[in-house]
């Protein structure tokens, strides 16, 4: 079970980037999924995510500029980042809270009890002229 993130890079201020994160493995359900970031010398912070209720949540610093979207069929979330600023420079980490698949039952599978938290490998976003 893992998260695979991609899409980081170098972009000029005012530019755009799109990050992708795919969850793979014996996943029964994804309870929440989103993006965090960590800039040099700072703590990791939430950027945007889908909550357990299916709602979206954004950091105040990215509201109106970033958009999170998901493709449930692909277990993938995307982060569209527009009007990027130098302050957005950071390593971006995908995060998910998932329920794993258990044994077969009837025509399907049962979920394993509990949930686990997953982190992707991080992708660097650098905003600089």
Commentary on this structure:
The chain is mainly beta and 129 residues long. The chain is built from no helices and 12 strands. It has strands at 2-6, 9-11, 17-24, 27-38, 45-50, 56-58, 66-71, 76-81, 90-105, 108-111, 116-119, 123-127. The strands form 2 sheets. Strands 2, 4, 5, 6, 9, 10, 11 and 12 form an 8-stranded mixed beta sheet that branches. Strands 1-3-8-7 form a 4-stranded antiparallel beta sheet, with no helix packed on it. Strand 4 and strand 5 form a beta hairpin.
The total count of helices amounts to: 0
**Tertiary shape:** elongated
Largest sheet: 8 strands, mixed
Question: How many strand segments?
Answer: 12
User: Strand-residue fraction?
Assistant: over 45%
Structural class: mainly beta
Query: Ends: how far apart?
Result: 38 Å
Whole-angstrom Rg: 16 Å
Helix content: under 10%
Low-confidence stretches: none
Q: Would you list the SSEs in sequence order as H and E?
A: EEEEEEEEEEEE
Mean pLDDT across all amino acids: 94
């Amino acid at each position: 079970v893992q998260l695979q993130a991609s899409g980081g890079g170098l972009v000029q201020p005012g530019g755009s980037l799109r990050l992708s994160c795919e969850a793979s493995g014996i996943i029964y359900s994804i309870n929440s999924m989103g993006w965090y970031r960590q800039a040099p010398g700072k703590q990791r912070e939430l950027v945007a995510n889908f909550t357990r209720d299916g709602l979206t949540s954004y950091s105040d610093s990215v509201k109106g500029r970033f958009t999170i979207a998901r493709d449930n069929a692909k277990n993938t979330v995307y982060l569209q980042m527009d009007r990027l600023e130098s302050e957005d420079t950071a390593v971006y980490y995908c995060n998910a809270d998932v329920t794993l698949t258990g044994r077969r039952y009837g025509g399907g599978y049962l979920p394993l009890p509990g949930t686990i938290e997953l982190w992707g490998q991080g992708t660097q976003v650098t905003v600089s002229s």
